Amino acid sequence: MRPRTLALSASALVTALALVGSALLGGSEGQALQGEYKIGLLEPLTGPLAFEGKRHLDGYEVMRDMINERGGVMGKKLVLVVGDAVDPTAAGSEANRLITREGVKIITGTYSSTLCGAASEAASRQNVIYWESSCVDPRFNKRGLRNVFRTEIDGTGFGWYNIEFIAKHLAPRFNLKPNQIKVAFLSEDSSYGQGVTEAARQRAKQEFGMQEVAAEYYAFASTNDFSPIIAKFKQLNPDVVHHIARGNDAVLFWRQSKEQNFMFKALVHAGATGYGSIDFGKALGVDGNGPFVLAEPGPGLRLEAFRPEARKLEADFSEAIKKKTGDEPLASHRLAGAGLWLLKVVLDQARTDELEKFRAAVLAIDMPVGSTLNGWGVKFAENGQNANERVQHYMLQWQNGRLMTVWPEEFTTARAKWIPLGAWDQRK
Amino acid sequence: MRGHALALVVFGAAALTPLVLHDGFFLDSLILILMWGAVSGAWNVAGGYAGQVSLGHSAFFGIGAYSAALMATRWNASPWLGMLVGAVVATGAGLIIGYLANRLKGPYFALATIAFSQVLLIVASRWRAFTAGSEGVPVPFRPGLWTLGFASKVSWVYLVLGLALAVYAVQVYLERSRVGYQLAGVREDEDAAQALGIPSRRLKVVAVAASAALTSGCGTLWAQYVGFVDPFYVFSVDLSIRFALNTIIGGIGTAMGPFVGSILITSLETFLRATFSDVRGGLVGIYLIIYGCLLILVVRFIPRGLVGWFGERFRAMGLHARA
Amino acid sequence: MSAVPQLLVSTVLLGGIYALIAVGLTLIFGIMRVVNFAHGEFLMLGMYLAFWAFTLWHIDPYFILVVAVPLFFAVGLGVYALVMRGVIHASHNVQIFTTVGLSTALQNLALVFWTGDFRFVRPWHSGVVLRIGGGAFNLSQVVAFAVAVLFTLSLFAFMKWTHAGRVMRATAQDGEAATLVGINTDRVYRLAFAIGIACVGVAGVLISPLYSVYPTAGLQFVLLAYVVVVLGGLGDMVGALLGSLIVAAVEVIGSYLFGSAWKEVIYFVLFIAVLVLRPAGLFGQRGAEALGV
Fold it and tell me: Residue A58 maps to which CATH number?
């Protein structure tokens, strides 16, 4: 066959398949089956965010099974229908597909700030409830949408907690008042890094009068050398380095700081990437001692501080995640699990997915800190956001290759060390 | 009306679909097909009709998207106004690119356009004070015609269809008008065209600027439809490649080419995503591999795209029947 | 003032990395006059080769180099035969879209098979630091630099003093005339392409301990490589080395003075400026770019 004909036939065949396939793609129109309740789940399963998206998916699936063992949702078996939200256009499209083709009345997900915006828009236009468990964009709940809820802290919360830690826990131990502390802000430049850093900068300056000596952003994937930045920072002599890293940049910065003998009293980060990744400990071992990471709790957590129901949930969840993925639960798993569990609580209370009754049930919840599997409390505001103060976050620290939970002290057995960080070879 | 047969069929079907089909999934796919088709058509004005292949058209798309979003968020301005402002800014950017088109040959020009779109990406993601930086801009949804806010998919179908018809009309004008013939001359052999007294440099700049303005308009509509402007997406190289891809597969330099290409490419993508979302692993990403291979094959063996190829067949059949 | 030695070191080492990536490109671009948009993807494949060899079999990247050279040479031959040969004499548009299609296909093959996770290769030497004078040299960077210089000089010698090199240069200057004197231009192009791909594959292996490995890693490097190649002049090996140092200097000094957020803007603008003002590059012949492109 001539190449042209071949190419054309291939194209025609593919188009025909696409059209026929779409026509045949008859998803069920609504909650037809008795005894099942479908919820839509949107995650980035392909593309650059896929590895976190899949962790989210794992967390959701494990929690779904746990929920079905505990009476399901409104007495029915919980079923998750999944959509791949690889970019904002796809997020909107897939949300639409889940609503029109699968008939879901609630959509959950979606990991990233740029995706949750588009997905929740699509849901709102069709009056479908949107239950976000992970994205941190501070504007998410400020659009006046009655159907949009978020269980996770909003982005300002991470920065808020970091500065809280620096001002209340570190400053006294440096013998400095908060407004005497010099902070150098360094961050990767994605929406996550910018969101957290800007929130931290604002609180540092406005509430505590901390002195900001630098605020540098960099593209994490194309940076292989922090020397220019470290050279600049050395001259500015900060007390604390607030570094939001995304991957290998944490290892690189820490290592190069050591090589170039850049001295500072503490380094604080937030999130499960960069310094919060197990990879940091694997790469550096005891050389990585010292950095603080605001993240989901790990070793050193006093589960006794949790309420009994929460302890049981946490234990079952951890075990199931270990069986499924071979690892301890990571932040993404916990966010998904806690978010879905809360959804069950609401639905069981409201016994319907009708918006007004659902909202009433959501706003009625009032749980103290320590009530959910990651130690959160729950209290939603009118705009659908779970109060930052209830979404308890923890400060962890790298100690001898392990990320130990060190703060708040009423929740931890371990304690923070090396305050201030001494010479590079003195941190044992 | 003979030359418009294909357009009648495609756009007519699009217009009739919402009356017959109420399935939101199909309507959403139709909207995306028309939208990507329109922006590919806008690309075609510069890339096909003027022969200036740009791989940085996402720059103009992003300008349109941001204009509407920022003006609506900061000053409560109507997105139509945002579209106008975006078109003006994009035209300015288009003039710069047009100037480059006159200085740089083919592949160099393509590289420069990529660099340009990436500069805009970096600026948009860093200039927090103006654009909210990497976090992007949520587009406020206010129902109404003046605020370009429609919850109903049916309204969107007709809105995007209007856009598609406008882009189609511009392309047809370029095929039939004197300006269009001159442009074709410039495209085929610039030296000869100049010898004939055609102001080739000016024409190229105008074509690129017009293409930029149209692309920006599409960007505005996209932003209103999807509701969130992410700098890493709207200024991406992938998006620029998509505009060119649709047009080349469908038929570069033909008015319906971009739309035919979009039908094939967008349907394939939507279908694969709907089918394989549940499956772990990146199977959904397969469509992108297929696109890459299709591009190589089409540009080599069917350089005139599907429209050109089928057009030839029909004409051949016609001659045969007459004989 | 104490920052200067370190900045100087950073510039030189970074320049070495960029030279490594650009040297293969300037060869292909210079001889074949084809803008290969997929160049970055071969770099990415080199990085993944190093990653998988290290992760699965604990082979150090420097040992994998031995395998990488013939492997990527063969890949280059294959890609030439399948894709490039058909478009050598085709119009610019065909060339552009063929290589763009290749780029898209390769990126997404990597994405489908290996996912979008950011990986890294961390052999024992990625943490080794040499302290000489006032600066700290990272061993991986030093090796990359040394190899870059080696490759550049070897290719320069090859082009200048071997028969094959002379044949290539002749073909680059005037393909038709070359055919007239009996040169098999197809073989020349094939060799040039294969060598170029081998170079960039090796570059990928060498930089794998320094950068994250992910499917779209090629994009940022390919644009950078083109900046270098255009600055240094098409086909000019030493020009590529010097161009790399210039771009590295701009990046390092720019980061230090203005903050690293804007460094990419600086060299993109530099790129557009060079293309517009002096397309033959800083060292190339003026007007050379108009010939044959």
Answer: 3.40.50.2300
Residue A23 lies in a domain: no
Asked if A144 and A242 sit in the same domain, the reply is: no
Per-residue pLDDT tens for B65-124?
A: 999 999 999 888 899 999 999 999 999 999 999 988 888 888 888 988 999 999 999 999
Angle at B58 between CA B64 and CA B306, to 5 degrees: 115
d(CA A124, CA B227): 11
Q: Nearest 5°: CA angle at B266, between B265 and B270? A: 120
Residue A18 has pLDDT above 70, yes or no: no
| Cα angle, residue C165 at apex, residues C159 and C170 outer, rounded to 5° | 105
Q: Where are the domains of chain B?
A: 2-237
Q: Please indicate whether, in this complex, the C-beta atoms of C93 and B300 are within 8 angstroms of each other.
A: no
B237 touches chain C (CB under 8 A): yes
Residues A45 and A179 in one domain: no
B267 to A15: CB separation less than 8 angstroms, yes or no: yes
A255 and A397 share a domain?
yes
Q: Which residues of A touch B276 (CB under 8 A)?
A: 84
What domains lie within chain C, and their CATH numbers? 3-290 (1.10.3470)
What residues in C contact B299, CB-CB < 8 Å?
Answer: 93-94, 97-98, 101
> Are B288 and C111 contacting, i.e. CB atoms less than 8 angstroms apart?
yes
Question: What ipTM score was computed for the predicted complex, to two decimals?
Answer: 0.86
**Are the beta carbons of C83 and B103 separated by less than 8 Å?**
no
Please count the CA atoms within 13 angstroms of the CA of B88 that sit on its side-chain side. 7
Q: What pLDDT, in 10s, does the model give residues C177-231? A: 888 888 888 899 999 999 999 999 999 999 898 888 998 888 878 888 888 888 8
Split into its structural domains, chain A has a count of: 2
Residues A126 and A271 both lie in one domain: no
* Residue A15 within any structural domain of the chain: no
For chains A and C, CB pairs below 8 A equal 91
Q: How far apart are CA A276 and CA A250, in angstroms?
A: 9
Residue A22 belongs to a domain = no
Q: Do A404 and A354 belong to one domain? A: no
Please report the beta strands in chain C, taking only residues with DSSP state E, as ranges in sequence order.
129-132, 135-138
Q: Is residue A314 part of a domain?
A: yes
Q: CA of A366 to nearest chain C CA: how many angstroms apart?
A: 38
Token pair 């103060």 is found at: A389
Residue in this structure with the two tokens 């993240």, named with its chain if needed: A295
According to the model, what pLDDT value does residue B186 have?
87
Q: Do C256 and A189 touch (CB under 8 A)?
A: no
Residue that is written with structure tokens 């996402």 in the block: B58
Give contacts of C9 with chain A, Cβ < 8 Å: 227
Domain holding A197, by residue range, is 156-296+393-426
Interval A154-185: pLDDT, tens: 777 889 889 999 999 999 999 999 999 999 99
